[in-house]
């Protein structure tokens, strides 16, 4: 198999095992999918983590699995990013447990396929509330701690708003907003040593997002110049780099991790 089509290799072949030793990560949406893998990989490099989501039971199970896989500590803190008070409580639980926060991942997201005509005002608002306002609220709740640690933010966005992708008006508007929010955060907080970056994943296999958004019988890998679907590990590797000191002069960027897919995609 050509190396560019080979399954994703481990960040541990490139970065030190103890890269993030003594650091604390706060991640919304860390229970499953892309963010679970990012948290797992960050923990395998020594970070302790809090994972935040609505499903308390699922969070507890994921936290246990993450601890078992990595030997680090993981706090399950249940909160809906639509509720600022719940988020503030999750932040407090994290700081009470670990004493600080160094890294934040804004990864909580909701999505479904629907044409504009089929979207009620509440449906549009629900996705904006989770994806965009949820990111804003997570920033607000964590910023005092990130200023203190001179830490950094990573936002999980998308590439669908680079073009007009049908049935994705709500999430396109939200993710465009997330990219902008991150840029402003980078500029406002840069002088305090805080960084903010975005990863825009392409089609990632075995995720809820892909199964919700891929019509049956289609082969998304056909539209990827590098010839394979993405793996959650591809996103995790990029996240490790962006949080590492190797990226200390990188802020206000969007890193597209999609095998080149957004350059040629026509529609879903
Ligand atoms: C039209 C829909 C709909 C659909 C829900 N709604 N699904 N409208 N088509 N398929 C409408 C409802 O009718 C309602 O409007 C409003 O949206 C809120 O729906 P609820 O079910 O009451 O909301 P809630 O229970 O809070 O659920 C939120 C959700 C849900 C976003 C709708 O899907 C969810 O919880 N998702 C979380 C998991 C998830 O989506 N993961 C995938 C993320 S992937 P009315 O008017 O009836 O009140 C991802 C990747 C992005 O984000 C980039 C991909 C490339």
From TrEMBL:
Pfam families tied to this protein: adh_short_C2
Catalytic activity line of the entry: a (2E,4E)-dienoyl-CoA + NADPH + H(+) = a 4,5-saturated-(3E)-enoyl-CoA + NADP(+); a (2E,4Z)-dienoyl-CoA + NADPH + H(+) = a 4,5-saturated-(3E)-enoyl-CoA + NADP(+)
UniProt EC number: 1.3.1.124
Biological process according to GO: fatty acid catabolic process
Keywords: NADP, Oxidoreductase
Family annotation (Gene3D superfamilies): NAD(P)-binding Rossmann-like Domain
GO cellular component assignments: peroxisome
Keyword Metal-binding: no
Protein name (database record): 2,4-dienoyl-CoA reductase [(3E)-enoyl-CoA-producing]
């Amino acid at each position: 198999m050509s190396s560019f089509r080979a399954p994703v290799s481990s960040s541990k072949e490139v970065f030190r095992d103890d890269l993030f030793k003594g650091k604390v990560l706060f991640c919304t949406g860390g229970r499953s999918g892309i963010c679970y893998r990012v948290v797992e990989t960050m923990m395998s490099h020594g970070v302790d983590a809090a994972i935040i989501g609505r499903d308390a039971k699922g969070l507890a199970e994921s936290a246990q699995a993450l601890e078992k896989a990595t030997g680090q500590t993981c706090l399950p803190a249940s909160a809906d990013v639509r509720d600022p008070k719940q988020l503030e409580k999750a932040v407090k639980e994290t700081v009470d447990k670990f004493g600080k926060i160094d890294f934040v991942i804004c990864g909580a997201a909701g999505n479904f396929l629907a044409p504009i005509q089929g979207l009620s005002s509440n449906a549009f608002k629900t996705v904006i509330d989770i994806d965009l306002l949820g990111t804003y609220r997570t920033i607000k709740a964590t910023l005092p701690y990130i200023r203190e640690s001179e830490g950094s933010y990573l936002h999980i966005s998308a590439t669908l708003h680079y073009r007009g992708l049908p049935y994705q008006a709500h999430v396109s508007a939200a993710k465009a907003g997330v990219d902008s929010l991150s840029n402003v955060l980078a500029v406002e907080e840069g002088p305090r040593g805080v960084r903010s970056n975005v990863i825009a994943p392409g089609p990632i296999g075995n995720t809820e997002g892909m199964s919700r958004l891929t019509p049956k019988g289609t082969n998304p890998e056909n539209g990827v110049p590098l010839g394979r679907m993405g793996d959650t590990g591809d996103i995790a590797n990029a996240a490790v780099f962006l949080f590492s000191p190797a990226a200390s002069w990188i802020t206000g960027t969007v890193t597209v991790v999609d095998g080149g897919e957004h350059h040629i995609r026509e529609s879903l």
